[in-house]
């Protein structure tokens, strides 16, 4: 079983955040109503967040003679996580392309007893994020997250 999805995430138009603070105590100053800061086209045209342009999913199954096995693989291309980071310098954040794989195998001993092993994150994948620094597409590393492999031993007893 396999699937490929192409998504044209389009563009969203957003105003850049205004983080200027005013020391002038006159009315309407420092109240967030100042005109937006002009920072070129960095915020003017970003893709919709959380949507990868390319997505691939593939699975293989085996189910015969009391043995059930499955291997699943997923890959997605780079995508916009958020159009503005929560922390300084408040830049758009992208997640780089990532993949993952899971597997499971079960053996049916008899009608009442089944045993299995499941493994999540076979490749021990890492999520890497970057800041978008300018409208020309220059990026810098932001963060790296590592997810460990997980093993589960399952025993099913039916009375």
Please give a structural write-up.
- This protein has 159 residues and is mostly beta strands.
- It has no helices and ten strands.
- It has strands at 2-6, 54-64, 67-76, 79-82, 93-95, 98-110, 113-120, 126-132, 139-146, 150-157.
- The strands form two sheets. A six-stranded antiparallel sheet has the order 1-2-3-6-7-10, with no helix packed on it. Strands 4-5-8-9 form a four-stranded antiparallel sheet, with no helix packed on it.
- The chain is 0% helix and 48% strand.
The end-to-end span amounts to 34 Å
> What is the helix content?
under 10%
Look at the helices and sheets and give the structural class: mainly beta
Radius of gyration, whole Å:
24 Å
SSE topology:
Elements: E1 2-6, E2 54-64, E3 67-76, E4 79-82, E5 93-95, E6 98-110, E7 113-120, E8 126-132, E9 139-146, E10 150-157
Antiparallel strand pairs: 1-2, 2-3, 3-6, 4-5, 5-8, 6-7, 7-10, 8-9
What are the main properties of this structure?
159 residues; mainly beta; four-stranded antiparallel sheet; six-stranded antiparallel sheet
Q: Can you summarize this structure?
A:
By secondary structure, the protein is mainly β. The protein is built from no helices and ten strands. A hairpin with a 2-residue loop joins strand 2 and strand 3.
């Amino acid at each position: 079983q396999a699937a490929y999805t192409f998504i044209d995430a389009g563009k969203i138009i957003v105003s850049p955040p205004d983080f200027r603070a005013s020391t002038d105590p006159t009315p309407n100053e420092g109240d967030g109503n100042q005109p937006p800061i002009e920072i070129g086209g960095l915020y003017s045209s970003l893709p919709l967040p959380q949507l990868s342009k390319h997505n691939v999913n593939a699975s293989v199954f085996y189910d015969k003679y009391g043995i059930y096995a499955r291997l699943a693989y997923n890959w997605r291309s780079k995508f916009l996580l958020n159009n503005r980071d929560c922390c300084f310098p408040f830049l758009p954040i992208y997640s780089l392309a990532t993949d993952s794989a899971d597997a499971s195998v079960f053996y049916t001993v008899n009608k009442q007893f089944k045993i299995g092993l499941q493994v999540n994150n076979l490749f021990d994948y890492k999520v890497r994020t970057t800041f978008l620094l300018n409208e020309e597409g220059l990026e810098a590393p932001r963060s790296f997250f590592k997810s460990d492999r997980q093993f589960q031993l399952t025993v099913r007893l039916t009375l």
